[in-house]
Design a protein that fits this description.
four-stranded mixed sheet; alpha+beta; about 35% helix; about 450 residues; 17 strands; homodimer
Chain lengths: ~450, ~450
């Protein structure tokens, strides 16, 4: 693991991407070898940074010929060890594939290279009264390629779906170096198998995504954010279901707890939003062509919201302030050391009770650990963060994921399986499904060089 | 082709599904051997009608062991010869897989067996204030299995997407008889490859779909339908784009032409909607929690609508009357003999001109043929129907599909490739894409018994 490349292979990579884009020095490699939380640390003989799809093809073919495994890496914001070289793979960084087409205002679409950040897509769309429906806290680092490869979810799934739902086309390099390119962006196109949807969420195991055609949605003229306190998780789940039923333009519904709020305020230096300290917080955003403030206020009535724990914001600055209580969770938790991040979905009817039970499930295995919960309550998706564990101690991970599967939930809502959750995939997938996955993997990556340690590894 | 089964194979099928569900008499087979338009007529040694997924498994395994090709067939409403035994295949009818679960009102989902009709799903959903977003004129015959296998579109794609966008899970039998079952319906679930999305639209070539978990949407309290006249197709395309921008709840936008309107009125005995006879008609439906009539009326202002050609309906009976002008097109055209039905998507910017040009493209090849156009203008999707051609004369098909591809369009918007369009698939798909399709086909149907003459055949 981490053995250097032979001089001839290194020269071959340099001939493809230029010597400056073959990183072999330890300092240059280090940022690509560990995930940003610091939990997953590997080693690579080289980071190669192609500038075009043709260069990606040549890199993949060279790896296939040399029997070198490859980890594709975008903004390195993944949380399941799916984009770092944990088994000594070559890192293929897609960040230089950063071409962004003009916005197609007739179709409301854009073609983005894999290395374009979500933030750059948003900036380009904003100029035309549009936006990209996938948004998440890591927007200025996370790339189109990485978010497509992982079917990233984020803040607006409750209204618009995850990344797969935004995909109108894809360009990718398969394991044999062949190029799939279908970027026409037609609204309806039943000409064969849905390659874009299949590659989306395949976590770099079937292809290197090099570009995507993305649907854009109208940028609403008005938005309102409310942060409210609630007495318990089940009341929060029921309240959000009630709000959804009357607010079709509900854009986000985020849940977090008093402990997380306190940690965020202490760590980041924010003032608590209310004098009252409710056990549960929900942040909702509603947006539309007309001011939705009154509709939101009406929806909040009689749904368990604590009357002294309501903050409503309509102007952009104040909305961003309320969002910080939610979005700073990740940073605040990371100050306690690399967390174990378990991203799970529960059936909505089981979600409230699960939130109550998780700390006990964790404590039964690791009494000194601390549990932090936040997530996208409209989707049944919570992020269970556990601090105070050794990076390779996965007894808590197993206990929580088994509890999730036992309640009909998913062990990965939006982060993927990566290397972190491989051993539990069978909790959610039958032998027949795993065999089908393996057959598909072999079909598109017959040499098995693309992210071989991830998902099925 | 059409040779009888050996007595031992026939007995083996009868042991699986019961003798009454192995149809070998010519009379019993005939309804399964030809599509409803009468253009595609084949022959089968037997129709087998399993009642459960276990019986499907046994049928598929028997076919694999005997080297018998299988055509899965639902309601037999397909239009591209993808569900009839054109090469002497066994027909596996899914109509008896007709179990429908209770409506899950918390998740707004239902699990439907492959043989359940779309109409039955709608009826069940209606009782809970919900509906299924995929709706089409053949709703009382078309089945869940068939519409999933073909990624059916229909009338509401402009708002809700096609069938793939409604799928929250799938159950299917692969070519080796293994069963994929993932029907939990979680909103977010990144645990491996998107098998549901891959099988959706695979036209029976990768698996026999046996059940699906379907998302439902709220049934709007109010709906309004407007039928309007416009001076030409390009004005109609621009008008619909303008309406979409201000009507996020635009549910349908259907285009048809004066000739089709006249044919419908003459054939079905409807009275023309206007004294004026505009060249182009667009039918739009808008629905929501509040009465959208005023918003629709405001949107229609100044968008080229002819002032003496506007009909608006809010009550259900009158809305249905307006819809008949559109929905009876299929029946009316069929009275002229089996049409060639070419279902294509154009980029929106090229659609208006294409509609103008198609009759000339057809006439250049077949001067005596007649061309009928209608379709889903919001999606860029038009159905080019041509009558007066021999069933196997596909020169017109080729000329139209080449014109479509040359303008950046898709040769199949929502009907699929079937057997009818196989020879033109390369107009839209590169050798690398076709090779990837073939690899995926081999991965999930290694013996090549599932619909071998369809799509890639």
């Amino acid at each position: 693991m981490g053995a250097g490349l032979s001089p001839s292979v290194r020269a071959a990579f340099a001939a493809i991407v230029g010597a400056a884009n073959v990183l072999t020095d330890a300092d240059a490699r280090s940022g690509y070898e560990r995930d940003w939380t610091g939990r997953f640390v590997g080693s690579t003989p080289a980071v190669v940074r192609p500038r075009s799809v043709d260069e990606v093809v040549d890199c993949v073919r060279l790896c296939a010929a040399e029997g070198l495994a490859v980890v594709p890496q975008g903004g390195n914001t993944g949380l399941v060890g799916g984009g770092v070289p944990l088994a000594g793979e070559v890192v293929l960084s897609t960040r230089r594939l950063d071409h962004l087409s003009a916005i197609d205002t007739v179709a409301a679409q854009v073609t983005a290279g894999a290395g374009v950040t979500l933030g750059a897509v948003q900036d380009a769309a904003r100029a035309h009264g549009l936006r990209y429906a996938v948004d998440l806290a890591a927007r200025h680092s996370a790339t189109v390629g990485g978010t497509v490869a992982t079917n990233a979810g984020g803040l607006h799934v409750v209204r618009y779906g995850a990344t797969r739902a935004q995909l109108a086309g894809i360009e990718a390099v398969l394991g044999d170096g062949s190029v799939i390119r279908h970027l026409g962006g037609l609204a309806k196109d039943n000409t064969g198998y849905d390659l874009a949807g299949l590659l989306c969420g395949s976590e770099g195991t079937l292809a290197v995504v090099t570009a995507a055609r993305l649907r854009l949605v109208p940028r609403p003229a008005h938005a309102v954010v409310a942060l409210v306190g609630l007495p318990d998780p089940s009341t929060a789940v029921e309240a959000v279901a009630a709000w959804r039923a009357v607010l079709p333009d509900l854009e986000a519904a985020e849940l977090f707890l008093a402990a997380g709020m306190n940690l965020v305020c202490d760590t980041v230096g924010l003032r608590p939003p209310f004098a009252a300290r409710p056990p549960v917080y929900v942040l909702v955003e509603v947006a539309g062509a007309e001011d939705p403030t009154d509709r939101l206020a009406a929806a909040l009535e009689g749904t368990g919201v604590e009357h002294d724990a309501v903050a409503v914001a309509t102007d952009e600055r104040r909305r961003a302030e309320l969002w910080r209580y939610r979005e700073e969770h990740t940073t605040a938790i990371n100050t306690l050391g690399p967390p174990h991040k378990l991203d799970v979905t529960l059936p909505l009817g089981a979600l409230g009770r699960f939130v109550d039970e998780v700390p006990g499930i964790v404590a039964a295995v690791a009494p000194a650990a601390r549990t932090w919960l936040f997530g996208h309550v409209g989707d049944g998706n919570v992020h269970v963060n556990v601090t105070g564990l050794a990076p390779d101690d996965d007894r808590v991970d197993g206990a929580v994921l088994e509890a999730v599967a036992g309640r009909g939930g998913s062990i990965s809502a939006e982060h993927g399986i990566g290397t972190a959750k491989r051993r539990w995939l069978a909790l959610n997938r039958s032998p027949a499904e795993l065999a089908a996955f393996a057959a598909l993997k072999h079909a598109l990556d017959p040499a098995g060089i693309l992210n071989p340690a991830v998902l099925l590894g």
